[in-house]
Amino acid sequence: MIVPVRSVRVLCALGALGVALTACGGPRASSRVVTATATEVAQRPVVASRPPTLAPGPAGLAPVFEHGPRNRGEKTVALTFNADMTEEQGARAAEGERFDNPRLIATLRRLEVPATVFMTGRWAEEYPIQARSIGRDPLFEVANHSYGHQAFSADCDGLPTLEAGRIAGDVERAYTAFREAGVADPMPYFRFPGGCYDRRALRALSSSGVTAVQWDVAGGDTAATDPAVVARHVLERVRPGSVVVLHCVRGAAPVTERAVRMIVPALRERGFRLVKVSELVGAAAATTS
């Protein structure tokens, strides 16, 4: 879930030194359940590449990226999806509550929409086949949304707060869950649960070698009941270089898939090219080098 950031916001895309970090994964380089088979994924060849990151911020703090360059002469936008699940929600999943949204992933594939999925480690453990399918499809990239969706700073919309000494371990625990699920090459990007962070969190995160990725357009899809409202919310706010945050959690964001079917053609009609977060981060890093 996302809430407004109540903490110090450090936009290092403008102040980065232009030196790309090399870490990937920490310090190391349904109604109709749709899960891609190995054959489906094999049809899209995987091309290995070195993910772009931003240089550390002031005092070595983890860099924070919010949107791409506005004046590149090209209208790009990244759709991102938070796949949230906490450690405590396993019992609810066992009782039938759905924290995945395979129909959404199928729609993104059908519309050929590149996207970045910010996944919690607990989500990957609950849905390992889907996590592996997403992570091995070159149309998508998987990034880190913590292990159990605990807040990295205090006063974050009621989320329990993770102690500073446990932050780096929590990030690595999520990457471990991705590897065990078979996710190929998770990205060195991290999104704070609830969107909340402060200098303490950035300092603790710095050892993980990741770029923190926020957003400049919140879709407002959590608990929404009208997909047209979500679509309008996005389309009224998107700008060149925007990062849009939506959710891949069917129970908490039930209309997201229908909203995406409205958002994508409207963006393309306006001349926007849909890209992954990594392309926007790379463009931001290039402007500061």
UniProtKB/TrEMBL annotation:
Residues 1-25 form the signal peptide. It comes from Streptomyces ossamyceticus. This is Polysaccharide deacetylase family protein. Keywords: Signal. Residues 75-275 form the NodB homology domain. The lineage of its organism: Bacteria, Bacillati, Actinomycetota, Actinomycetes, Kitasatosporales.
